[in-house]
C-alpha cells in the first residue's frame, strides 16, 4: 500500500487536570488519502476533536499531553517535528475549519485582510495582490458580490456566509488535507446543505483529502467515503460508508443507527442506548462499551478488543465482530 | 401513541403577533423599526396531541413559546386556553394558568440554577404554588417525580453539575411535570443532547404523554425528531406558518416550496439513497425579520416565485387539489422523501 | 465543541458513589446548609475567622491588652525604637505605639467593616434593581451611578463632612458614623456596576425564565435565583474595598475632616508616620502590619465563602 496522505497511528492523549488524568485518546488509528472524504463520527467526549487538534498541532497543552502514537503527513512524522516545520505544514498543507465561524474570525479586521494575511506573510504577496486573490477565493466559495464584500467585517456576514469565509481562508494556501470540525453544526439545515455541497465540490475539484468530524449520522451518509466511529477515545469501527450503514459491525455503531428516529420508527419507542458514555478518568476495564452493550459477555469485561481487520477489509473493535458481519 | 382527541381544542392561538422594537440611543431611546418575530400565527392544539413546530433559526418559533408562556407580552392577537382568554388573566387566575401550561427549555446547562439542589429545583413549583402540595408531602412528591423521569430519587441533594446533559434535561422535565400541567411547550428539548441520549429523552416524553394525557407543542429544528413525535406539524418561516398539516401530509406530500426545500435539505442517514434523492438547494440566507420581503416572505429564495408573490401575501388555506393549508400561491403537493 | 467542555462532560460522573452513605435517609439540604457544612471544614475559613475574632476582641476591649494610655505623650521619648518597655517603640510625640495600635483597632475595624457593608448593600441593591427591571429603571440608576462615579472622592468628602460636621458635634460615635456614611455615599457606584452586570447575566439565564414560567414573582427570582449567582464578584470587591476604606479613613483624618485626636486609628498612625519612614520605620511598620493582617483575614474569609457557595467547587 502506498503511503497515505495523512496517517494517525496509535495516538494517545491525556488531559492532566486537578481532578485526575482523563484518558482522552487511547490509541486512535486512521488515515486519509487524496480525493477522499473520511468522516470521523462520535458523540461529545469521544475524542474526535482532540484528535484533529493534535494532528494540527494546536492541542491545548496543558492540560493535553500526547503520550504515544504518531501522526504522519506523506510519511513525515509530525509529533516530533520542529515547531517551525509544523507551522509551515499548518495551513500550507493541512488546514482546518471550525464549528463556530464567528469566533474563529477576528472581528476587527476585514475578511479580505484575514484571508490575505497568510498570502502576504507566507507567499510575500503585496497587499493589493492578496486582496485580489481573496476576492477570487470568496467568489470560489460562492459569496455573491465578492468584490464589494471583501472589505466587510465578519459581523456583516450571516452564519452560512461566515462559514464560507472560513472555508475560503483555509483554501488560501492550497492545502492537501482539510480538516472540518463540525463545520455545519451551528447552521440551519438549508444552509448546512449548501455548505456540505460546497465542501464536496471543492474537495473533488482540488483532489484534497477531507476529514469531516461530526456527530450527525445524516451528514455522514450524504458525503463520506469512509467512516471511522469513535467511542471513549478509540476508533471502534472503520468501514466504507455503504457497508457501515448496511451492516454495522460494532454494537455501538449499531445502537447509534437504531437510536435515530426514522420514518418507520414513528409511533414506536426508539431503541435508545442505555446509560451514559464512560467517564474518561475512569474508563471501564475491557471493552469501554461493555456496560451499555446488549451483547456484552464475560470476556468483554476483561479483554480490550483490538481494532481488528475483518476479511471484507473493514475493521471493528468488538470481540464478536465476525458474528456481526455474518449478520 | 394514544389517539389524540381532535375535536376538543385545548389551546387556540388566533392571529398572534409579537414585534420587538429595534431601538437606538442610550438615554433617549428612539424606535427605528420592529423585529417581526411572530407575525400573525394561528393554530389549535388538541387534547393529547403533539403539534410540532419546525423552522430555521429566526423563524420565530422560540418567541412563540415565550409569548404562549406569557414570559413576553404579545403585540396583538388572542390565545384561548379551554376557551378562556389567556392574556386577560391576572393574579390568581394567571397563577392557575401557569399550572396548566409548562415549558421544557432547550439548554440543560443553563436551565437549571447551578446553586440549587435537585430537590429545590424540582420542588420549587410547590413553593410557588403552596396549595398544590402540603409542606410535609413535598419531599415525597419530588422523589416521585424524579422516579417518573427515570432518575434516582436518592439524588435529591445533588447539584445540577453532578449530572450529565441528558439527566439534566430529565430534571427540567420533572420540574415541568410537578404541577400536573395539561400542556407542555417543549422548546428544542433534545437539540443540545447527543444522539444516543436524545432517543432516551424522546422516549420519556412519549411515555409521559401517554401516561398523563399531555398535549405537547414541540418546537424543534430537527425535522426527523419532530416527525417521530408529532401528530401534526406546522412549518414556520419568518414569523409565519407557511404550511400546517398532519405528519403524513407535511412529510409525505408537502405543498409549500419552503417545506419541500427544508425536507430535501435534511441529510438522510442512508448512503444508498444519496444519489437517488431529489435535491432542492435554496440559495442565500433567511432575510432579516426587521424588513421582511413584501407579499410572500419566501419569494426571495423561491424558485417558483412570480409577480403575484411580490404583490399579494398568500393566505394559509387549502387550495386546488391540495389536502391541507399551505401559504403559497403556487402550492403543489410533491413527494420528496423515500418512503422506506 | 471545545475541548475543555468535552472533558467536563466526560469527566462528570455518571453515577458517583453517594457521599456519606445513602442520601435518602438524610434530610433535604439547601445551598446554605451545604455551604455551612463545607465552611466548617475549610482551614482557610477557620484561620480567617480566628483572626477576625482576635481583632474583634482587640476592638472591644483594648484595655485588656495594654495598660498604657494611647494618648499620653512624653516628648522625651520621641521616636524611640522598640524596647522591652514599649514593644513597638514610641511615636513622634512620645506616645506608646503598641497601645495606640491596639486602641486604633476599634475605629479601623468599625470604619472598614461598616463602610464596606453600607457600600455593598447600597450598590448591590441598586445594581440588582437595575439588572432585574432593565428599561427606564436601569437607565435612571445607571445615569445616577455615572454622576456619583464622576465626583472626585476627596472633594465630595470635604463637602459632605464639612457641611454636616457642625450638626454632629464632637462625639466620637457621631463623627465615626458620619465618616462611614460619607465613604459609602461616595463609593457605592463600583459595587452597583459589578452587581448590575452580574444580575443582567443571571437575569438572561434560562433558569430564571423557567422560574418565571412557573409563576415566580420578582422577590423569588431575585432572592433565590439571581442573588446567589451574583454573590461571587461582589464578595471579591468587598474584601478588597475593606482594606481600601481603612486607608481612606486615614486620608480624611490627614485632611482634618475625618476622625481627630483623641480618637486613634491605624489610618491616622500610618499617615503620621509617612514622613519618618527612614528615621523611624517602626512607626509605620506596626500599624501597617495590623492593617495587612486584617485585610488578609477578610480576603480569606471572602474567598472561603465564595467557594462554599459554589457547588461545583465541592
Descriptive overview:
The complex is a heterotrimer of chains A (327), B (340) and C (314). Chain A is α/β, with parallel strands linked by helices and 327 residues long. Chain A contains twelve helices and twelve strands. In chain A, β9 and β10 (234-240) form a beta hairpin. The model of chain A has no long low-confidence stretch (mean pLDDT 89). Chain C has helices spanning 3-11, 31-39, 43-60, 97-133, 135-150, 153-168, 172-203, 206-213, 218-254, 266-273, 282-308. The longest helix of chain C is centred in the middle third of the chain and has 37 residues, at 97-133. Chain C has one domain (32-313): MetI-like (MetI-like fold, Orthogonal Bundle), CATH 1.10.3720.10. In chain C, 69% of the residues lie in helices and 0% in strands. Chains A and B meet through α7, α8, α9, α10 and α11 of A and α6, α7 and α9 of B.
**What structural class should be given to the helix and strand makeup of chain A?**
alpha/beta
How many structural domains in the coordinates of chain C? 1
- Annotated CATH topology of chain C: MetI-like fold
Distance between the termini of chain A: 30 Å
The fraction of residues in strands of chain A falls at 15-25%
Low-confidence stretches of chain A: none
Largest sheet of chain A: 8 strands, mixed
**N-to-C CA distance of chain C:** 26 Å
Helix content of chain A: 25-40%
Biggest sheet statistics of chain C: none
The CATH superfamily of chain C bears the name MetI-like
Largest interface: A-B, 49 and 47 residues
What is the typical, i.e. mean, pLDDT of chain C?
83
Oligomer: heterotrimer
Q: Structural class of the helix and strand makeup of chain C?
A: mainly alpha
SSE pattern of chain C, N- to C-terminal: HHHHHHHHHHH
Order of helices and strands of chain A: EEEHEEHEHHHHHEHEHEEHHEEH
Strand order of the largest sheet of chain A: 6-7-8-3-9-10-12-11
| Rg estimate of chain C, integer Å | 24 Å
Amino acid at each position: 500500500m502506498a503511503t497515505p496522505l495523512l496517517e494517525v497511528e496509535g495516538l494517545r492523549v491525556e488531559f492532566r487536570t486537578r481532578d485526575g488524568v482523563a484518558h482522552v485518546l487511547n490509541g486512535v488509528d486512521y488515515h486519509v488519502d487524496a480525493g477522499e472524504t473520511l468522516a470521523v463520527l462520535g458523540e461529545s467526549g469521544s475524542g474526535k476533536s482532540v484528535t484533529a487538534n493534535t494532528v494540527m498541532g494546536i492541542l491545548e497543552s496543558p492540560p493535553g499531553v500526547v503520550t504515544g502514537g504518531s501522526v504522519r503527513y506523506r510519511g513525515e512524522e509530525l509529533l516530533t517535528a520542529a515547531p517551525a516545520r509544523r507551522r509551515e505544514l499548518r495551513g500550507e498543507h493541512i488546514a482546518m475549519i471550525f464549528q463556530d465561524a464567528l469566533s474563529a474570525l477576528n472581528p476587527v479586521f476585514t475578511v479580505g485582510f484575514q484571508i490575505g494575511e497568510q498570502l502576504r506573510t507566507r507567499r510575500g504577496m503585496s497587499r493589493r495582490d492578496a486582496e485580489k486573490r481573496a476576492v477570487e477565493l470568496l467568489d470560489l466559495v460562492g459569496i455573491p458580490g465578492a468584490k464589494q464584500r471583501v472589505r466587510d467585517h465578519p459581523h456583516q456576514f450571516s452564519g452560512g456566509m461566515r462559514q464560507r469565509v472560513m472555508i475560503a481562508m483555509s483554501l488560501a494556501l492550497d492545502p492537501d488535507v482539510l480538516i472540518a470540525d463540525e463545520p455545519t453544526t451551528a447552521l440551519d439545515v438549508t444552509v448546512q446543505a449548501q455548505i456540505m455541497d460546497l465542501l464536496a465540490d471543492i474537495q473533488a475539484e482540488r483532489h484534497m483529502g477531507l476529514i469531516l468530524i461530526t456527530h450527525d449520522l445524516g451528514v455522514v451518509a450524504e458525503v463520506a467515503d469512509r467512516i471511522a466511529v469513535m467511542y471513549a477515545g478509540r476508533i471502534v469501527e472503520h468501514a466504507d460508508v455503504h457497508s457501515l450503514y448496511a451492516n454495522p459491525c460494532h454494537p455501538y455503531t449499531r445502537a447509534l443507527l437504531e437510536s435515530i428516529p426514522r420514518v418507520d420508527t414513528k409511533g414506536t419507542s426508539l431503541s435508545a442506548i442505555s446509560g451514559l458514555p464512560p467517564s474518561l478518568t475512569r474508563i471501564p476495564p475491557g471493552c469501554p462499551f461493555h456496560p451499555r452493550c446488549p451483547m456484552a459477555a464475560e470476556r468483554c469485561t476483561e479483554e480490550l478488543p483490538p481494532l481488528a481487520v475483518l476479511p471484507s477489509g473493514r475493521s471493528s473493535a468488538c470481540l464478536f465482530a465476525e458474528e456481526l458481519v455474518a449478520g | 401513541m394514544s389517539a389524540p382527541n381532535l375535536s376538543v381544542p385545548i389551546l387556540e392561538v388566533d392571529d398572534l403577533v409579537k414585534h420587538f422594537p429595534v431601538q437606538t440611543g442610550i438615554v433617549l431611546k428612539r424606535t427605528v423599526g420592529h423585529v417581526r418575530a411572530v407575525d400573525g400565527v394561528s393554530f389549535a392544539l388538541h387534547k393529547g396531541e403533539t403539534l410540532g413546530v419546525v423552522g430555521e433559526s429566526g423563524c420565530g418559533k422560540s418567541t412563540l413559546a415565550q409569548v404562549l408562556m406569557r414570559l413576553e407580552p404579545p403585540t396583538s392577537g388572542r390565545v384561548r386556553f379551554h376557551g378562556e382568554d389567556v392574556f386577560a388573566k391576572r393574579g390568581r387566575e394567571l397563577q392557575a394558568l401557569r399550572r396548566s401550561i409548562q415549558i421544557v427549555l432547550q439548554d440543560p446547562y443553563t436551565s437549571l440554577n447551578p446553586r440549587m439542589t435537585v430537590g429545590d429545583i424540582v420542588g420549587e413549583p410547590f413553593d410557588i404554588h403552596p396549595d398544590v402540595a402540603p409542606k410535609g408531602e413535598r419531599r415525597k412528591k419530588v422523589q416521585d417525580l424524579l422516579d417518573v423521569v427515570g432518575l434516582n430519587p436518592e439524588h435529591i441533594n445533588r447539584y445540577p453539575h453532578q449530572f450529565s446533559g441528558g439527566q439534566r434535561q430529565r430534571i427540567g422535565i420533572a420540574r415541568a411535570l410537578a404541577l400536573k400541567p395539561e400542556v407542555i411547550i417543549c422548546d428544542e428539548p433534545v437539540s443540545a443532547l447527543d444522539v444516543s441520549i436524545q432517543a432516551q429523552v424522546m422516549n420519556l416524553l412519549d411515555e409521559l404523554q401517554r401516561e398523563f394525557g399531555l398535549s405537547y407543542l414541540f418546537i424543534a429544528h430537527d425535522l426527523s425528531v419532530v416527525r417521530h413525535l408529532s401528530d401534526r406539524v406546522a412549518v414556520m418561516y419568518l414569523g409565519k406558518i407557511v404550511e400546517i398539516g398532519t405528519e403524513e401530509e407535511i412529510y409525505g406530500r408537502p405543498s409549500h416550496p419552503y417545506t419541500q426545500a427544508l425536507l430535501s435539505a435534511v441529510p438522510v442517514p442512508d448512503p444508498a439513497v444519496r444519489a437517488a434523492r431529489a435535491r432542492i438547494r435554496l440559495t442565500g440566507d433567511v432575510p432579516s425579520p426587521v424588513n421582511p420581503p413584501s407579499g410572500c416572505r419566501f419569494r426571495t429564495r423561491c424558485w417558483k416565485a412570480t409577480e403575484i408573490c411580490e404583490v399579494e401575501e398568500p393566505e394559509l388555506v387549502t387550495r386546488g387539489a391540495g389536502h391541507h393549508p399551505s401559504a403559497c400561491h403556487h402550492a403543489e403537493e410533491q413527494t420528496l422523501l423515500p418512503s422506506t | 465543541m471545545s475541548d475543555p467542555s468535552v472533558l467536563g462532560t466526560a469527566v462528570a460522573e455518571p453515577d458517583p458513589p453517594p457521599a456519606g452513605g445513602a442520601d435518602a435517609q438524610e434530610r433535604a439540604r439547601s445551598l446554605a446548609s451545604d455551604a455551612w457544612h463545607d465552611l466548617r471544614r475549610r482551614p482557610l475559613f477557620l484561620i480567617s475567622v480566628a483572626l477576625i475574632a482576635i481583632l474583634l476582641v482587640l476592638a472591644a476591649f483594648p484595655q485588656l491588652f495594654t495598660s498604657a494610655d494611647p494618648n499620653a505623650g512624653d516628648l522625651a521619648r520621641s521616636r524611640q525604637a522598640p524596647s522591652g518597655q514599649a514593644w513597638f517603640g514610641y511615636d513622634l510625640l512620645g506616645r506608646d505605639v503598641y497601645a495606640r495600635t491596639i486602641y486604633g483597632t476599634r475605629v479601623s475595624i468599625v470604619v472598614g467593616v461598616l463602610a464596606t457593608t453600607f457600600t455593598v448593600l447600597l450598590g448591590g441593591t441598586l445594581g440588582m434593581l437595575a439588572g432585574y427591571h432593565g428599561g427606564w429603571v436601569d437607565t435612571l440608576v445607571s445615569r445616577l451611578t455615572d454622576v456619583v462615579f464622576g465626583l472626585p472622592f476627596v472633594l465630595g468628602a470635604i463637602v459632605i463632612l464639612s457641611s454636616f460636621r457642625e450638626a454632629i458635634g464632637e462625639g466620637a460615635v457621631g463623627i465615626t458614623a458620619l465618616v462611614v456614611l460619607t465613604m459609602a455615599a461616595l463609593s457605592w457606584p463600583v459595587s452597583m456596576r459589578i452587581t448590575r452586570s452580574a444580575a443582567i447575566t443571571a437575569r438572561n439565564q434560562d433558569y430564571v425564565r423557567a422560574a418565571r414560567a412557573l409563576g415566580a414573582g420578582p422577590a423569588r427570582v431575585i432572592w433565590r435565583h439571581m442573588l446567589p449567582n451574583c454573590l461571587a464578584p461582589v464578595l471579591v470587591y468587598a474584601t478588597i474595598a475593606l482594606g481600601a476604606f481603612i486607608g481612606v479613613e486615614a486620608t480624611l483624618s490627614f485632611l482634618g475632616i475625618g476622625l481627630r485626636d483623641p480618637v486613634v486609628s491605624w489610618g491616622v498612625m500610618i499617615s503620621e508616620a509617612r514622613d519618618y519612614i527612614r528615621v523611624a520605620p517602626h512607626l509605620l511598620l506596626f500599624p501597617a502590619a495590623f492593617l495587612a493582617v486584617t485585610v488578609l483575614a477578610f480576603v480569606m474569609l471572602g474567598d472561603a465563602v465564595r467557594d462554599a457557595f459554589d457547588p461545583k467547587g465541592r
